[in-house]
From TrEMBL:
It comes from Anaerocolumna xylanovorans DSM 12503. It comes from the Bacteria. Keywords: Aminotransferase, DNA-binding, Transferase. One of its GO terms (molecular function) is DNA binding. This is DNA-binding transcriptional regulator, MocR family, contains an aminotransferase domain.
Length: 426
């Protein structure tokens, strides 16, 4: 099939009629599929079920340093949990605080604390006229939701193939004291699956912020989430790089086992410099007596060490890989050569980022929803839910059963074709 832009009006009208018939037929299938959130599927949850057998009423719940995990105590996490998560995110255990079940919660707390109490003695952000955050786009909607909730002005920073546009980042960060942070998903980014290059990481580490309370929010959610064993992407360790660059306090690094063990019931952590740890612990000690140590112990006893996590992630990859491949195959078969869309081919993470012709994304998502396939709302990958081009759609292949994914993607590509034809006809 030739590119749509080379078709005559008659050809487009004829094709539109044909596609409409196909769409009507697919609506008749009464599909009900959810591709909106990057949730693991049931098979992925099942691979962690043995973790439930690790602790029972006869287990010894004493941790390595003799602490009874059933009782209060330990603000910043069990030593063995810090070691495990530290190894996972390539940070020494002493640079970590283990929190509860959610890294997003830690990010929220970090912003909230900065708002009310400032960062290492600086003016609380709520006392400033304006606070701004840089937001690489497309990005993670829940990051943007946090900054929007606190009334922080968000500035779009376009992503390139090797990370955010660093010329722009450097300009904003060095010139504007109101810029207090940047959201980053540096490895297998959400949604594009891009891993920041060494050059980009080094430029982050060397930033010269106008604001001394500027922090990089380095959300390492997908550090272990490779799809291909022989094509793993790696990234320079940002805390180490920032220390080398004389900028030791510039980074908060976040992580969790949400998409390793159980989402919402995993273990989450922040890694940062000793100065930041002191600052954070002052607040944390008021907020809680300690997080769930039994869950930390369960994770440590189940995985044992980093090799346990690596082996476990291969099982996730074996389930996810065919799903990603199905999505990419349908995209290529149905849309290849039509010049009406582009998409990323990630080597890890949870998403495939898809771009329609400008002005088509909302319509595609609506059409798919009407026919029973729920996608992430168009615009969700941009601050304030506003995609200036109305083109980006985040595809989350993990959750639907493999057998339904092909049908869902065929419907999706049909919706893309219909919306594109209408764009050309108007
Ligand atoms: N960060 C990113 C980039 C994510 O994509 C997600 C979940 O989709 C999270 C954080 C949520 O992590 P948690 O479950 O640890 O709060």
């Amino acid at each position: 099939m030739k590119p749509y832009k080379e078709m005559s009006r008659e050809e487009l009208l004829e094709l539109k009629d044909e596609l409409k018939k196909q769409y009507k037929m697919m609506r008749g299938l009464n599909l009900s599929l959810d591709m909106s959130r990057g949730k693991p599927c049931i098979e992925q949850l099942d691979i962690s079920m043995e973790m439930m057998d690790i602790l029972n009423s006869s287990s010894d719940l004493t941790c390595e340093d003799g602490m009874d995990c059933r009782n209060y105590g330990v603000l910043d996490g069990l030593p063995e949990a810090k070691k495990l998560i530290g190894d996972m995110i390539e940070v020494p255990a002493e640079n970590l605080i283990i929190y509860g079940n959610s890294s997003l919660n830690i990010m929220y707390d970090a912003i909230s604390r900065s708002m009310t109490h400032g960062v290492m003695g600086s003016t609380p952000w709520c006392c400033l006229d304006k606070v701004k955050f840089l937001c690489p786009v497309p990005g993670y909607d829940r990051h943007f939701a946090i900054t929007e909730y606190f009334g922080i002005e968000m500035i779009n920073i376009p992503m390139t193939d090797e990370g955010p546009d660093m010329d722009l980042v450097e300009k904003y960060v060095s010139e504007d004291e109101m810029v207090k942070g940047i959201w980053c998903v540096p490895k297998y980014s959400n949604p594009q699956g891009i891993t920041y290059s060494d050059r980009v990481v080094k430029r982050f580490a060397r930033l010269k912020p106008a604001a001394k309370d500027f922090r990089i929010y380095w959300d390492n959610a997908y550090s272990m989430h490779h799809l291909y064993e022989d094509e793993q992407e790696n990234i320079l360790e940002i805390l180490e790089e920032s220390k080398k660059a004389g900028n030791p306090d510039i980074v908060y690094k976040f992580s969790s086992t949400s998409k390793i063990s159980f989402p919402g019931s995993g273990v989450a952590a922040i890694a940062t410099s000793p100065n930041n740890l002191v600052d954070i612990k002052k607040q944390l000690a008021i907020q809680t007596i300690g997080h769930d140590k039994v869950n930390q112990l369960r994770h440590v006893r189940y995985y044992k060490d980093i090799n346990g996590i690596i082996a476990h992630m291969k099982k996730h990859a074996d389930i996810l890989r065919p799903k990603f491949e199905t999505v990419l195959e349908v995209l290529e078969t149905e849309l290849g050569g039509l010049e009406i869309a582009s998409w990323h081919k990630p080597k890890g993470g949870y998403f495939i980022s898809f771009d329609t012709l400008n002005g088509c994304a909302k319509e595609v998502v609506e059409r798919a929803q009407k026919a029973g396939v729920k996608l992430t709302s168009a615009g969700a990958t941009y601050p304030y839910g506003k995609d200036p081009n109305d083109s980006n759609i985040r595809i989350a292949p993990s959750f639907p059963p493999a057998k339904d994914l092909k049908t869902a993607m065929e419907l999706f590509t049909l919706c893309v074709k219909l919306a594109s034809i209408e764009r050309y006809l108007t």
